[in-house]
Design brief:
Blueprint: E1 9-13, E2 25-30, E3 37-42, E4 49-54, E5 60-64, E6 78-79, E7 90-91, E8 96-97, E9 119-120
Parallel strand pairs: 6-8
Antiparallel strand pairs: 1-5, 2-3, 3-4, 4-5, 7-9
């Protein structure tokens, strides 16, 4: 979906985000977990993923943190879809880590794992 090993996003209410100029294009795919559509919004000039919107959560817009003037200005509070992490990826200490999404398809919150020290996302051969 993102063309990279990682995707960092910040979530906002849909009406809290306004784009000042330019036109975004989008493509869609089906989520592995909910099987609902995820809409990827990107710059038609350079292909940069600007953010996501979701059939499952129509009131939410994700903005790609790589698009911020200062991507470190927002704290990371969780990691999702860690089951898909590539071999060698380390998850940080004291951050919620979810194997899939933060909630099941029917809205039940998932239980997060938290590590006391950085931990490898994959302890096996990745199969």
């Amino acid at each position: 979906m993102t063309g990279t090993s990682f995707y960092a996003e910040s979530l906002f209410p849909m009406d809290a985000v306004q784009f000042n100029e330019g036109e975004l294009r989008q493509y869609e795919h089906r989520s592995d977990g909910s099987h609902k559509k995820v809409f990827v919004h990107f710059c038609p000039s350079c292909g940069t993923t600007m953010g996501l919107t979701f059939e499952r959560w129509p009131e939410v817009r994700a903005i790609s943190r790589g698009c911020y003037d200062d991507p470190n200005a927002v704290e990371l509070t969780s990691h999702i879809w860690t089951r898909s992490a590539q071999s060698g990826v380390a998850l940080p200490a004291d951050v919620d880590c979810f194997a899939r999404a933060r909630a099941t398809a029917d809205g039940v919150p998932e239980v997060a794992l938290r590590y006391d020290a950085p931990a490898l996302a994959r302890q096996d051969d990745g199969a």
